[in-house]
Input
Amino acid sequence: MTSSFTEKKADYQESVNDVLSEYGQEGGLIDINREHAGSSWMAYFNIVCVVAGTGTLGLPLALKQGGWLGVLILFLSWFMSVYTGIILIRCLYTNGKARLTTYKEIATASFGWIGGWITFFFNAWILLGAPVLYMVLSGTNLNQLCKGTVGEIGVVPWTIVSCAIVAIPFVLVKTMKEVAWMSAFGAVATLVVVFICLVMSAIDKPHQIDVHHDAVIWNMFPIALSTISFSFGGNVVYPHVEASMKKPSDWPKVVAGGLSTCAVMYFVTAVSGYLIYGNNVVSPIYNSIPEGVAQIIAIVVITLHVLLAAPILTTSFSLDIEEMFDITVERFGKVKEFLLRAAIRIAIIVVVGVISCTVPHFGELMSLIGAFANCALIFIFPVVFYLKLTGVRNKPIYELAWCLLVILLGIVGLIFGTIEAIKELIAVF
Output
């Protein structure tokens, strides 16, 4: 048993040394404690669960909004998100002293406290915005499932029930490692829903007559870009996911594998959904397939998924807050630390619930969150921070050109996508 522990510790230390060597930090950089960290597979499932899910459901509508050119943007977003996911984690190891722990710390190291708080604002927007979106979807789905029964109590009451369900694991579990099992279910759930939508839409194809498709719709293109960018929105939790890994040297493979798995599901869902339903497609995509048992199963599975995915995002936000206020067992003791942590997390879920009940519009909300927060956090900030912390002149010209393209795509989505998303949200009220 002692031999097994020694071997595991040696593997862990070797993995940490590999990371530090790759990032040019062999000189005694202090890593976080990973002795109780999880496997790379659990990190992979974390990424698939957080990134896939609801993003998959809105992509056929994104193609309807932007036309077939959206497939090219989907490809670009995939490659760009893998790149920014890798360089964001590299930024954690660049100060030569100790591994940084959060997205906000990377921003602070790059541009001081102003950069830190600007990033924290965008970070909070997505880490709270996505759970809000999940609660809206869950409340809508549960009410839809209970249609015609005494359980049809309205979207808002079911949204409150959803928040109460999410609050239980959110308050009780402490770190990303402890919510990893939720990720495993979420990844499988997304695959099931994609399969159901693919099969049912194929069966429904003969009934879809005079379906219209566009090559590109330029005036709606930015909002399509923002919906697509939402689909790759995992950067905000990557520092915590990487911190939960026993072997941090596996991170590039984990993030590339996780995002590639999501991309395959995206292409299957987006292309088949838009090809078959064209301008008649709606979001979420399972509302386009024929009513019946298959649709009910898809709704149940995706509802379970969002209820399990929401604690992952809210836990990530809570960990950032607890880090800022130094809420630790060492400082407060076990009981007081738990009470403080529980109070913060209950306050967070109350905020999520209030917003969810006030803005119950899934598609428009997804576009706004994707445009305003994800375009900045996925495409713009990681590249800017990476170049600031590691230098510009030591990069080959092709990498700098790629960085410029990533930033440009992010800016277009951020500015024009946000404007269009706000217009759509105003229109539905």
